[in-house]
Design brief:
The complex is a heterotrimer. By secondary structure, chain A is an all-alpha fold. Chain A has one domain. Chain A is built from nine helices and no strands. By secondary structure, chain B is an alpha/beta fold. Chain B contains six helices and nine strands. In chain B, helix 3 packs parallel to helix 5 and helix 4 crosses helix 5. Chain B is globular and about 45 Å long. Chain C is an all-alpha fold. Chain C folds into two domains: 79 residues, no CATH class; 135 residues. Helices cover 76% and strands 0% of the residues of chain C. Chain C has eight helices and no strands. The chains are: A mainly alpha, B alpha/beta, C mainly alpha. At the A-B interface, helix 1 and helix 5 of A face helix 2, helix 3, helix 4, helix 5 and helix 6 of B.
Chain lengths: 239, 209, 258
Amino acid sequence: MQAALPSVQLGRGSAPSAWGVARLMLERDLRLAFRKASQLVQPLAFFAMVTTLFPLAITPELSRLRHIASGVLWAAALLASLLALEFLFRDDAQDGTLEQYALSGRALTGLLSAKTAAHWLLTGLPLALMAPIAGVALGVPGRALPGILASVTLGTVTLSLLGAIGAALTLGVRRAGALLSLLTLPLAIPVLIFGAHATQLAIRGEPYGAPLTLLAALAVFGMTLAPLAAAAAVRINLE
Amino acid sequence: MSEAMLQVENLHLWRGERHVLRGVGFSVNSGECLQLSGPNGAGKTSLLRTVCGLSYPEGGQIRWRGEDVHRDLPGFHSQMAYLGHEPPLKMELTGRENLHYWVGVRRRFARSELERALERVGGQRWSDRPVRTLSAGQKRRVALAGLLLMAVPLWLLDEPTTNLDVEGQQLVGTLIDEHLAAGGLAMAAVHHPLAVSERGLRRLELGGG
Amino acid sequence: MAWTWFHRLASPPHVYRTAGRLTPWFAWPAAILIIAGLIGGLWLAPPDYQQGDAYRIMYVHAPSAWLSLMVYTLMAVAGGIGLIWRMKVAHALAAAAAPIGASFTFATLVTGSLWGKPMWGTYWQWDPRLTSELLLFFLYLGYMGLRAAFEDLQRADRVSAVLAVVGVINVPIIHYSVVWWNSLHQGPSVMYLGKPTMPPSMLVPLLIMFLGFTLFFGAVLLMRLRAEVLNRERAARWVSAALGGEPGGRWAGEEIGA
């Protein structure tokens, strides 16, 4: 019986491809998230709540809300996507699984990219799907909704990537909430500017292709560089 | 003389103002297990974390098969397994799921291999329960199954017998013995001597600091 | 070997002594240049035909703005060097530079808003340059906050270095997005401080102030670097020797990776 033990077959078994590793990681994070489903709903509820504050604080008149809708939507989306960030790597760092991934011999950038993609699927995408609904509540005309969906979808990709850097940097900090926001928000300003402008153009019924392209460019730029920074920060914090 | 598989020379590590490792050096060859002992704070964990490349030493060198490990960390990592104080498990996942995601990024393995590893640590029965519901000793056994599944030559173990009953401690000794017999090598930080046969056992005592 | 030379150059006692020796070479010229620049800018230069005397705050504002950016870049470069070559002195330099850079950024904001009162009739205008400067100030605050959040100095050094590098890549993106934003909402903005064509009587004091401020920064940086190195090496023997105290602690030679 002992001869059949895996430990005896030292070094046997092929390594999965980089794509296979990323898929495994993504699947794991999604499965974990759905086992703790209450955490999934919180950013969405927060987004809805923040959006509700503005009509109550300013005016219930839809014609006036329409003018500030793009700003309200983007500020709320920015804050909501920050909310879940603190736990992006923290749980895995605490139970030692992140360390195991860092020691797996696989590229940490790829593993963290997959985790960031999972984070976007779990917070960014739901926010993007919810933004048009919130838009309607703020008096946005129906023709603007595809533009809102597109810009929030693209913008939250970059927000998740920036957030991954912030979460990795503050991994070794005990209560990181406020610091994480202070680090991430200034970096997120370009997303806010381009995103809010695209939304505003969409509400006015004007073409919004230009800011949308800039948002896409930011997302691509972030995809290439953010995982490198996040991986460097994670390694330092695991030391 | 050919060099040992794992060769550590004159390792110095500072942690803030503490000089944790002061010129530690040793070598471990295939079929050998280095048992690290010493009082709390002697640097056992620091030494293991430095050898596996998590910490970067201020001085000295770690060579695996004659190569400085910091030249090719991923290559070195793919041939070693490190188990820290706590079993690296997700509480929300079952034992089998944990092994699937943990070891799965390193190598593909068949379902039967997973079952054999679980059988070896006596965990087949309860490995479909969320790890949260397992006892500390059972979690440790899942981690040991992961160690077997990784199928790597170098084991770096930090207190591998924590939370295990007498039978479990015996199991750790047997697993290490089998690993050595198959040509593997191991380093383990311990408080109580390992139940490993004397043949391949080497000892290193770290002083207090 | 070049490598040992490199490390000797970066060894803490050597840095401490060299920085001490260099400081007066920065401090005195800085003092002279700043006094000269102030006389030239505040008395000798003629009033501006549009702004009157209000433009004169430019002699403090513009050099501060230049240094606010330069210091952040320096921090990123030093941090990068510290990360790649594991050079502790580079991290000490970045740590010493951050509060100075933040102060220059703050001075830029204050002088900018003081200039705004007579020009715009309000202390704050969402002018693209001032807005970028405000965001830069937040970047500095984040950097210093991150540094302060770690007890382990080595980790603080390395983590904040990653942040500085990320930040320096983002500074131009942030700046251009803010400029773009401003062009949408306000049309072409009022011509801010610093005209493209300036008579030499205005320009020369400005250039003198640029140089003076930069040297002043150098002097303060060297002084802060000395303090930083002393604090980091307080357990080392050369520190007690340098300070004339009791010998004790570890030898500087033990600091192999320094």
